[in-house]
């Protein structure tokens, strides 16, 4: 056999050997794939897996060209006793160390899973442990040594969440005397169960599930040192119907403590970023938040808690805060939340009061709230200060430019609201209120406020005020204002316009004290220069209406003290005293004409049912007048007394339209009473004296002048001896508007006039009898004394004859405006011979 043939045969043999080997290998692989390894080999693998804490049973081992060593129909158990199954896999790829296997040692390096279903207990060795079911598990688990494993690409689905797990964990060989703490295990089971229950409140769209990435590293024999890091990302999540977008959650879980390194999400265009930690065992934690969310809506939806119930926001609220919280538990059934930080908000309301913008530093402690550096912009002004709410008690200190009505949501006193509602502010108003006080949120009647204020360009009860300042103290039952200064604006005051008076007047007051239960206002020491009616209109409008009848051309100097009461019956203790003095002209309507008074002074006393004007004095008609008048507003009744001295007839004539009264003066008094403006109610008595005037220039007596001349001139042998009656006096009484007098007296050196009669101001009628005794040149002084003693009938004959020329009698009757005077038979006077008609008239003497 040649060498060449030998080589050919060797090549064929090698080919057959290789082919036989390949066939044998393929046959072995097919056999191992179909029949698997022996049971002994499977037990070896299971024992090796136990070294890593993996308790498995499988039907057999087989070999795949692609996957390698494969355990088929694998069942994983919770513990070595294999009584609680936690997973079932159709196949489990096992990668071994081939070099050690060639030496007869089995070392598993990696386990590969594909589409596996896992039920993972959160507490090892406990049948009651919560279980996480993960589907579609794929990836590989490296087993670097006994009781240790790691993975970088293990993925699966949990409740629709795409989960990626990376881990590096190990466990020390358990000591023989190691006994797990039963209480600790029970506590962890409860915590994990609660955590999984909370997960049931979360929902998300099926087409965009969240992604969860988990990294676990640590010694399982010492759970306190195991790091559990997680990262959650989602486009949209729904927690208890609270929708969140663009969610990113990053943190870690170490035994009982969950730490959120970053939680960020948005809700309806608003953004929240949060850093927190939470102790699962203690159910408490810390939080740091930067949020523009609607905080009330967030707390209600997420924590089912209502906070800041008096707060209602329609705009944006930005909160930057940090603090701590304690979730409800058996010992504390309410949420314990403590926060400090800053808040800025816009377009919201608190307790019904609207706010445009707000910024403040705050501290929140379970309903107790402290606001510092509070700045509020309101549609009607600004406010800044601080507020403390503790145990439902509110204390505050602030400076405000808001009008009174904007505080109504916080004021519980209805009487105070009614009083403050009389204040009216406009866009030109200036308000500077410095306020401090307290409120009880559980008792709306328990509150108090005090401070000082400066106001400009406002009105109270319709009275314009250009400037006011003072201190105040308010509570449920009283309101006290002290050290007040007010300047009234008279620009539009009708009396100022009518008389071109000053445009302002200033008053000061020691105090005003409103007492709502007593329905009264105590006033102490008002002083200044101001029209009295606007002053009283601030708190007593009806009285002010009455004072408008006194038309001051210039505001008088006034003083005021007393008590204003609006109580009824005997509880009304009204006594208000207003003193006034004016150097300017004051007009007052008297007998349907306005008379001018100067240097007027007086004192107005307001009682429950009466207004008294006492100590009234003034210059009028060139003379002096004084007196008093008391008015009962309820029925318009009045009473009073006036006396006047040396009033110039020329001025009176000019006022009342008399003609010819160009000289002389008038003196007298009148005590009267009446009701309303009806003359028929006027009653009283008085006296009147004319000095150095002309009686017959008075329209009432003017027609009598021609009759007197016809008597006097013939007696004087046609010589003009008529002397004017320059002095005149009488006493009179008034009854129901009719004035009576029976002692009219006027004397000249030659003539004496006396008389009696009445004047009816209701019907404007009169009936007056005048007697004249002409003396002087005739020398008849003794005749009347004799003839008066004659019988009445004989006296009439004598007196109507020609032998007694000096005695004459006249009667005036008819309309006051045009009386009819005529001769009448002489009748004896009422007082007989004592009548002044029979006296010798002294020269230039006024009889009163």
TrEMBL record:
The segments labelled Disordered in the record are 816-848
Q: Which InterPro entries match?
A: AsmA-related (IPR052894)
Composition bias type Polar residues, residue spans: 816-825
Where exactly are the transmembrane stretches of this chain? 12-32
Query: What keywords were assigned to this record?
Result: Membrane, Transmembrane, Transmembrane helix
Q: Which residues form a coiled coil?
A: none
**What is this protein called in UniProt?**
AsmA-like C-terminal region-containing protein
Q: What is the lineage of its organism?
A: Bacteria, Pseudomonadati, Verrucomicrobiota, Verrucomicrobiia, Verrucomicrobiales
């Amino acid at each position: 056999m040649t060498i060449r043939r030998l080589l050919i045969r060797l090549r064929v043999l090698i080919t057959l050997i290789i082919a036989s080997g390949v066939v044998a290998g393929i046959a072995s692989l097919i056999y191992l794939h179909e029949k698997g390894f022996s049971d002994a080999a499977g037990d070896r693998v299971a024992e090796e897996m136990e070294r890593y804490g993996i308790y498995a049973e499988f039907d057999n081992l087989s070999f795949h060209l692609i996957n390698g060593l494969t355990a088929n129909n694998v069942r994983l158990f919770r513990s070595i006793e294999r009584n609680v199954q936690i997973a079932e896999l159709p196949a489990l790829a096992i990668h071994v160390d081939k070099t050690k296997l060639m030496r007869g040692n089995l070392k598993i390096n990696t386990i590969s899973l594909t589409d596996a279903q896992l039920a993972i207990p959160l507490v090892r060795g406990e049948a009651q442990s919560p279980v996480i079911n993960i589907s579609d598990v794929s990836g590989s688990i490296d087993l670097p040594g006994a009781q240790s494993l790691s993975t970088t690409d293990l993925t699966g689905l949990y409740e629709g969440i795409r989960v990626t797990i990376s881990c590096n964990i190990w466990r020390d060989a358990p000591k023989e005397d190691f006994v797990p703490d039963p209480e600790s295990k029970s506590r962890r089971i409860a915590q994990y169960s609660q955590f999984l229950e909370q997960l049931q409140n979360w929902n998300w769209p099926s087409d965009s599930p969240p992604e969860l990435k988990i990294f676990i590293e640590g010694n399982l024999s010492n759970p306190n040192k195991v790091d559990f890091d997680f990262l959650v990302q989602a486009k949209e999540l729904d927690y208890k119907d609270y929708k969140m977008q663009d969610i990113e959650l990053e943190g870690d879980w170490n035994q009982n403590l969950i730490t959120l390194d970053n939680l960020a999400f948005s809700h309806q265009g608003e953004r929240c970023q949060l850093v927190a930690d939470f102790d699962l065992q203690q159910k408490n934690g810390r939080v740091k938040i930067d949020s523009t969310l609607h905080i009330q809506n967030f707390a209600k939806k997420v924590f089912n808690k209502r906070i800041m119930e008096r707060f209602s926001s329609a705009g944006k609220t930005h909160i930057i805060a940090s603090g701590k919280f304690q979730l409800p538990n058996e010992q504390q059934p309410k949420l314990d939340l403590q926060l400090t930080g800053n808040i800025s908000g816009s377009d919201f309301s608190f307790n019904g009061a609207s706010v445009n913008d707000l910024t403040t530093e705050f501290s929140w402690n379970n309903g107790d709230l402290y606001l510092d550096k509070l700045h509020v912009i309101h549609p009607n002004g600004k406010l800044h200060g601080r507020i403390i709410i503790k145990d439902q008690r509110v204390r505050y200190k602030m400076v405000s430019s808001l009008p009174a009505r904007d505080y109504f949501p916080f004021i519980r006193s209805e009487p105070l609201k009614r009083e403050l509602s009389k204040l009216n502010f406009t866009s030109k108003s200036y308000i500077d209120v410095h306020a401090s006080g307290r409120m009880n949120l559980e008792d709306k009647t328990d509150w108090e406020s005090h401070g000082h204020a400066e106001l400009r360009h406002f009105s109270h009860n319709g009275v314009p005020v250009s400037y006011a300042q003072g201190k105040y103290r308010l509570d449920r039952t009283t309101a006290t204002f002290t050290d007040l200064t007010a300047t009234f604006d008279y620009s539009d005051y009708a009396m100022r316009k009518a008389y071109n008076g000053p445009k302002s007047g200033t008053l000061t007051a020691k105090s005003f004290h409103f007492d709502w239960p007593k329905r009264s206002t105590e006033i102490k020491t008002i002083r200044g220069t101001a029209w009295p009616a606007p002053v009283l209109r601030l708190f007593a409008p009806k009285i002010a209406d009455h004072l408008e009848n006194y038309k001051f051309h210039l505001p008088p100097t006034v003083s005021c003290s007393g008590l204003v009461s609006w109580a009824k019956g005997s509880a009304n203790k009204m006594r208000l005293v207003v003193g006034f003095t004016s150097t300017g002209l004051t007009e007052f309507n008297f007998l349907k004409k306005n008379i001018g008074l100067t240097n007027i002074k007086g004192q107005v006393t307001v009682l429950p049912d009466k207004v008294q004007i006492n100590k009234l004095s003034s210059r009028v008609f060139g003379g002096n007048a004084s007196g008093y008048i008391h008015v009962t507003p309820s029925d318009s009744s009045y009473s009073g007394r006036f006396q006047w001295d040396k009033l110039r007839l020329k001025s009176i004539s000019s006022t009342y339209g008399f003609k010819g009264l160009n000289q002389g003066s008038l003196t007298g008094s009148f005590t009267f009473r009446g009701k309303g403006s009806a003359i028929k109610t006027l009653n009283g008595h008085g006296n009147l004296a004319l000095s150095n005037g002309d009686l017959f220039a008075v329209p009432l007596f003017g027609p009598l002048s021609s009759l007197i001349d016809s008597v006097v001139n013939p007696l004087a042998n046609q010589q003009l001896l008529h002397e004017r009656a320059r002095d005149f006096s009488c006493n009179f009484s008034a009854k129901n508007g009719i004035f009576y007098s029976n002692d009219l007296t006027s004397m000249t050196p030659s003539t004496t006039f006396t008389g009696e009669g009445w004047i009816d101001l209701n019907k404007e009628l009169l009936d007056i009898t005048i007697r004249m005794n002409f003396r002087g040149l005739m020398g008849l002084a003794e005749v009347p004394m004799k003839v008066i003693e004659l019988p009445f009938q004989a006296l009439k004959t004598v007196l109507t004859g020609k032998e007694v020329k000096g005695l004459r009698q006249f009667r005036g009757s008819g309309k006051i405006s045009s009386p009819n005077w005529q001769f009448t038979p002489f009748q004896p006077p009422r007082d007989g011979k004592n009548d002044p008609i029979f006296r010798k008239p002294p020269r230039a003497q006024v009889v009163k």
